[in-house]
Design brief:
By secondary structure, the chain is mainly alpha-helical. It is built from 8 helices and no strands. 47% of the residues are buried. It holds the Pfam family MIP.
Length: 220
């Protein structure tokens, strides 16, 4: 396995979590209790970070930064199965390191466990299916019709999905796991992580069927 690709996935996922958690801490600090304003700042910063890391690291590793996306590409035959586990391992590790780096930046305890209890229930689980399907939709639709637009498409989609999904669109198992290690605005209680990931993986298999059909190359 190419170490440059693995390091790119590690680094990109770390920066993604720095964007998510860091902007969440800053937004909560400066918003004076205004949750809507904090979420807006968190969403914009995350979308900007996604645009930056996908643009710069896409040519190196494909810019997955997401075990569900890696699985989706493998199912399509566009990523070797032998490279799935290494990608997933470095994505999860990068996410956790990104969270810890953010805690250091904001002078917080490095080791934390989230106590955010409201990220659970059928509505939010279903929301994660929609969030993940939407992410795969813009990725594979963008690749099919306008590959150069994939970075802004993903960044804009996640920025919007923070607002129009009840779960605030985690849509990424590595992000979900890493956010369990941060007792901040962006955190998720560790006991709620498993069902979020199950829903994200379900969405990958739904998307594999639906999106492959939708974006198939045809003459009609």
């Amino acid at each position: 396995m190419n170490p440059r690709k693995l390091f790119a996935e590690f680094l990109g996922t770390a920066f993604l979590l720095i964007g998510v958690v860091g902007s969440g801490i800053m937004a909560q600090t400066l918003s004076d209790g205004n949750i809507a304003l904090a979420l807006l700042a968190n969403a914009i910063a995350t979308g900007c970070m996604l645009y930056a890391i996908i643009t710069t690291l896409g040519p190196v590793s494909g810019a997955h930064f997401n075990p569900a996306v890696t699985l989706a590409f493998a199912l399509r035959g566009e990523h070797p199965w032998s490279a799935v586990a290494p990608y997933v391992i470095v994505q999860i590790a990068g996410g956790i390191i990104g969270v810890w780096a953010t805690h250091i930046m904001f002078d917080q305890s490095i080791l934390q466990s989230s106590t955010t209890m409201h990220r659970t229930g059928g509505a939010q689980w279903f929301s994660e299916i929609i969030a993940m399907l939407g992410l795969l939709f813009v990725i594979f639709g963008g690749i099919r019709h306008k590959p150069d637009a994939v970075p802004p498409l993903v960044g804009l989609y996640i920025t919007g999905a923070y607002w129009y999904t009840s779960s605030t669109s985690f849509a990424n198992p590595a992000v979900t796991i890493a956010r369990g290690f941060s007792d901040t605005f962006a955190g998720i209680y560790p006991g709620h992580i498993a069902m979020f990931i199950v829903m994200q993986i379900i969405a990958v298999f739904i998307g594999h069927v639906v999106l492959n059909w939708l974006f198939a190359e045809t003459n009609d």
